Amino acid sequence: MPPRIPNAPSSLLLQSSACSGSSSRCTASRLPTWASSCSSSSPQSSQPTTHQQQCSSFSTTAPAHVQSVRRQKMFAWLDKKGSQYKEHTRQGPNLLGSSGRDGLAVPFPNNPYFKSQPVLSEGSREIIYKDVMELGLPIKAVSAKYNVDVRRVAAVIRLKEIEKRWVKEYKPLARPYARAVMKMLPQTVLGGPDQKPHESINDVYVHSYTTQQLFVPVSESREFTREDAAKAFGDHILPVDKKLRVPELIEFQKDLLKEVPLQEANHKFLKATAASEARIAEAEAKRRQAAEDAITRVKTDRFEFRFQEFNAENVGHDGRDRNAVGWRYGVPFHDRKRSQVKIPTKVE
Asked: Is the pLDDT of residue 271 over 90?
C-alpha cells in the first residue's frame, strides 16, 4: 500500500493558490517543490481545494541537456576521422584497426588477439563444388589441394546442393544480402597463380592425457615410435598419424622424400584418399542398415508404428545412458525455448 501524503498547512496552500494567478510578485523558490507544482482550479478562489490538498511531492525541474566530455569527443571523432566508417564504399573490409604480422586484419585496436579470418569467395565455393561433384575428386584430395579443411569442403558441397535445388524450384535467394556481406569480409580466392593457403588442415587435437610428463624406460636397441608414445599415455590415445584429417599426406610426403615422381605420388595419393572415403561410406551404410533392420514398422491408414528391442539393463554407469529405455525422462529438450542454439555448430 503506497504511503499517504500528509495534508499541507493552510498557509502554504494559500501561498500556492496566490502564486497560481497572474501576479508577478510571487517567487517559486520560496515555496516547497510539491507546492510549486500545484495550481488552483480557480484563480479568484483563495480557499484551499481538494486538488491542492492531494498534490504529490514530485520535482518539476527540467533535465539538463548537457553531453558528457566523452560523448562530445565521440561525436567529434565521428564527424572527422570516423566519417569514413559510416558507409562501406570499397571492396574488402573497412576496419578501424590495422593488419597483424600474419596479414590478418585486426578490427578492434584495443584487442589485438581478435583477428578477422577470411572466408571463401563465391567463385572458390563453385570451384570446390565442381571438383567434387563433376570431376569426382575425393573430398580429402580437394582439401589438400586448396588447403581447406575437410569439414568446410563438405559444408560447401551441401550448401551448394541446396542452392542449386532452390534455383530449380524457383525459390528466391538472398543474393543482394550475400553480396553486401561478402563485400565487407576478407576473402580467399582459389585457383589463381598467387593462391594462398586458406587455413591449416592438419591441426592435431591435444588430448588432456598427453599434457602430462611421463618417464618411460626404453632399451637402446628398441625403436620408439609415435604409436608407442600414444600407448604410453593410454590405450585409447591415438597416434598423431591417425589423428590427422588427411593422414594420406604423410605417405605422400614420404614418397616425395624417396624421390618418387610427382605424378606417380599424386596418383597414389588420389587412390589412397578414394579408398579411405569408400571405406568410410561403406561403414556408414552398414551402420544405417543395421539401425533400419533393428526397427519393425507397422503401417496403418494414418500412422506408422515403429518397434525396436531394447535391453532394460543397459542404463550406463549413472543410470542415464542415452541408449537406455526412457532416457529422455527428466531430460527435456530445449527445442521450443528461446535463446537456444537450434542450428548445427559443427559439420561431421
From this structure: yes
**Under a CB-based contact definition with an 8 Å cutoff, are residues 148 and 120 in contact?**
yes
Question: Is the pTM above the cut of 0.90?
Answer: no
Residue 188, classed as helix, strand or coil, is strand
Residue 213 amino acid letter: Q
- Produce one character per residue of 129-159: b if its CB has 16 or more CB atoms within 10 Å, e if not: bebbeeeebbbbbbbbbbbbbbebbbbbbee
- Using pLDDT thresholds of 50, 70 and 90, give the confidence band for residue 326: low
Contact in structure between 177 and 314 (CB atoms under 8 Å): no
Q: How many CB atoms lie within 10 A of CB 99?
A: 14
Joined together, the cell numbers standing for residue 145 give 589441394
Q: Is the pLDDT of residue 19 over 60?
A: no
**Please, what sign has the CA dihedral across residues 290, 295, 301, 303?**
negative
Evaluate whether 117 touches 104 at the Cβ level (below 8 Å): yes
Task: Judge whether 19 and 31 are in contact, CB under 8 Å.
Answer: yes
User: How far apart, in Å, do the first and last CA atoms of the chain sit?
Assistant: 61
b/e code 12-25 from CB counts within 10 Å (16+ = b): bbebbbebbeeeee
For residue 37, count CB atoms less than 10 angstroms from its CB and return exposed for 0-12, middle for 13-18, buried for 19 or more.
Answer: middle
Please name the residue that has the C-alpha cell 589412397.
Answer: 272
Distance CA 90, CA 275 (A): 46
CA distance 139 to 281: 12
Rounded to the nearest 10°, the torsion over CA 181, 183, 185, 186 is 150
Q: β-strands 187-188, 295-299: how paired?
A: unpaired
